[in-house]
Amino acid sequence: MTSLPDAAKALLDAPEFATVATIEADGSPQTSVVWVARDGDDVLFSTIHGRRKTDNLQRDPRLSVLVYPRDAPYQYLEVRGEAAIEEDPSASLIHALAQKYTGAERYTGDDGTDNRRVVVRVRPTRVHWRG
């Protein structure tokens, strides 16, 4: 496994948006903007079962995550790796991310839906940090 530099960890711990790129069935890229968290050197994001990125990752777990600070866009972190999809029945990660990014106590976007939350855990195989 590849380790993240301390400055890259600090960037992931800040409320900066990330772009996730997955691979479509035809080999073309599919991108999504997500909120991210970190667990050691793993990058985590929450999504919903049945979304394109989830379906793509179940078929091909390779992905790339790009994060940069809005006030310094030439500083960035790219993490390439393989995704592991974990069920999150209590939606604990999306609630923690809502707190981090918006200050809200919990995420309310799934209220009144039958959305099934999952956590995508990205285990880095390649890290490119430009600080």
TrEMBL record:
One of its GO terms (molecular function) is oxidoreductase activity, acting on the CH-CH group of donors. The keyword Zinc-finger does not apply. Keywords: Oxidoreductase. InterPro entries: F420-binding_dom_put, F420H2_bilvrd_red/Heme_oxyg, Pyridox_Oxase_N, Split_barrel_FMN-bd. The keyword Oxidoreductase applies. Gene3D superfamilies: Electron Transport, Fmn-binding Protein, Chain A (2.30.110.10). It holds the Pfam family PNPOx_N. GO terms for cellular component: cytosol. This is PPOX class F420-dependent oxidoreductase. It comes from Oerskovia douganii.
